[in-house]
Amino acid sequence: MMRAPCSDWVSAIDEGSAPGRSDWPERLNAMRVELHPAFVIHQRPYRETSLVVEVFSSRQGRVGVVAKGAQRPRSPWRGVLQPFRSLLLAWSGRGELGTLTHAEPAGFTLPLSGGRILSGFYVNELLTRLLMRSDPHPRLYEAYAEVLTALAGRSGGEPVLRVFEKRLLAEIGYGLVLDRDNDGGAAIEDGRDYYYQIDKGPWRVAPADVVTVKISGGALIALAREALTGREHLRETKALMRFVLGAYLGGRPLASRELFRGASGVVSP
Amino acid sequence: MSAISSGRIGQARRYSPLIDDLIGALRCLPGVGPKSAQRMAFHLLERDREGGERLARALSAAVAGVRHCERCRNFSDAPICRICSNPRRDAALLCVVETPADIESIEQGAAYQGCYFVLMGRLSPLDGIGPAAIGLDRLEGLMTEGRIKEVILATGTTVEGEATAHYVGEMARRHGVRPTRIAHGVPLGGDLEYVDAGTLSHAIACRRDL
Fold it and tell me: Which end of chain A is more exposed for a tag (fewer CB within 10 A), N or C?
């Protein structure tokens, strides 16, 4: 996988005296990541008073940082390091886990409420399960900010989750084929049924001995245009996404999806 | 991550086996590192052997005898805890909290006369904590009994706390129980200047008639 080169916002601390190991990628050596937009994906207690925070950074992708003392009663980070809030974060350190040095809210973020929190958990679980650490995804970061804004507003719901899943897959190199069929590369036709195969795309004629999921041409086109509206298209694209994501997630099911079973009034993604 | 998950790294034997064992055992307490554990062990052995005996007896008795209340899941010596078995408590009112410490706070600070339910955690799918892990099946069982009229959701104001409140609230509605959420807002005796933006916007959004 191609790594984006480290750019100016990652400055090696004291480059002369502490160069780090030259055989390591630069991102693993001592560095200071200056204040920049990021989201907290998840946090869990670490030692007595600290937290390990899983961050989705606009510049570095998914990163783990230690927030020292964040669990102390009077820590200024106590209410700040919450998921789904647009933040500005800075950290320093070498190796797998950096140390958070600064955190502040980046303007006002509409909070997710009620069942939308469950959808947010689902999106965050997808990120933790599918993204590699320290792999920058600036476009996906924008898509993530968009899906959170949509979930916080009235318009959110299933269509925005489908669009996010589609962009996520494209970003990690498993992009869906939504414009051409596999049989001869003809354009997808509305009003015709297709059989979607993982890593291949839609077939007009279901291939033998291969697991596929049936989907209408109209649903494929709607997903490609990111304009899902009809109930039938939503049902079909959900089935397609479950099928495709299931293959890339491996055997372990998504824990956040389980939650939807007990929550009425919210449709499981 | 391995250095984090394995809390005790390379603890060498320095004293006799009995003392080493004591020091090692004391380290299971929160906030107690090797140095504090050693200080505690030497204090007990040097100055307060009687206190050490008492501690040992109390500890083994508590570990053997303390269980979770069958109704509210709080710690209790008896199958049903003191609050749940108190006839003067209002059984129609149920306050759902995350930890036993939350009960203590409410008992000390608020004139609350209803009963409780302790989740011993909160929903957190990314940590693999689902409804069953926080006893929601048992809470649903209490709701089906028909005695509870109102459920006060006093889980934390974190995202996980909100998700838990939402989940339990939906469950309550299905069983014809009125769900309410504790108010979030400006602390008493506080100046607005020092209140964070999130709390302030919540306080404005949830204002009430005077």
Answer: N
> A130-134, A250-254, B137-141: lowest mean pLDDT where?
A250-254
What digits encode the pLDDT tens for the residues A171-193? 999 999 999 999 999 999 999 99
Q: Is residue A13 in some structural domain?
A: no
Q: Tell me which of A111, A127, A147 is where a domain ends.
A: A111
DSSP assignment letter at A14: T
Closest Cβ–Cβ partner in B1, B30, B125 for A259: B125
ipTM of the complex: 0.79
Q: How many angstroms separate the CA atoms of A121 and A125, rounded?
A: 6
* B156-174 per-position pLDDT tens digit: 989 999 999 999 999 999 9
Vertex A49, ends B108 and A18: CA angle to 5°?
165
Using the Cβ of A147 and the Cβ atoms of chain B, whether some distance falls under 8 Å is answered with no
Is A6 domain-assigned?
Answer: no
| Residue A75 lies in domain | 27-111
Identify whether A83 is part of a domain. Answer: yes
Phi, psi (5° rounding) for residue A88? Answer: -115, 125
**B185 close to B206: Cβ distance less than 8 angstroms:** yes
In chain A, the number of structural domains is: 2
A185: domain CATH number? 1.20.1440.120
**A118 to B163: CB separation less than 8 angstroms, yes or no:** yes
The candidate with the shortest Cα–Cα distance to A41, out of A192, A159, A145, A116, is: A145
Nearest-CB residue to B170 (from A111, A113, A265): A265
Chain A contact set for B159 (CB, 8 A): 82-84, 112, 117, 120
Q: Is A101 within the bounds of a domain?
A: yes
Q: Does pLDDT of B89 surpass 50?
A: yes
Q: What is the DSSP string of A216-237?
A: EHHHHHHHHTT---SHHHHHHH
Is the Cβ of A124 closer than 8 Å to some Cβ of chain B? Answer: yes
- The rounded distance, in Å, linking the Cα atoms of A98 and A88 is 15
- A204 contacts chain B (CB < 8 A): no
Are B131 and A124 inside 8 Å of each other by CB?
no
Q: Which of B4, B31, B123 sits opposite A46 (nearest CB)?
A: B4
Task: List the one residue out of A123, A20, A152 whose CA is nearest residue A62.
Answer: A123
Residues of B in contact with A263 (CB under 8 A): 166-167, 170
Contact state of A44 with B167 under an 8 Å Cβ cutoff:
no
**Cα(B100)–Cα(B117) distance, integer angstroms:** 9
Residue B13 has pLDDT above 80, yes or no: no
Please state, in angstroms and rounded to a whole number, the distance separating the CA atoms of residues A27 and A206. Answer: 46
Instruction: Check A52 against B198: CB less than 8 A apart.
Output: no
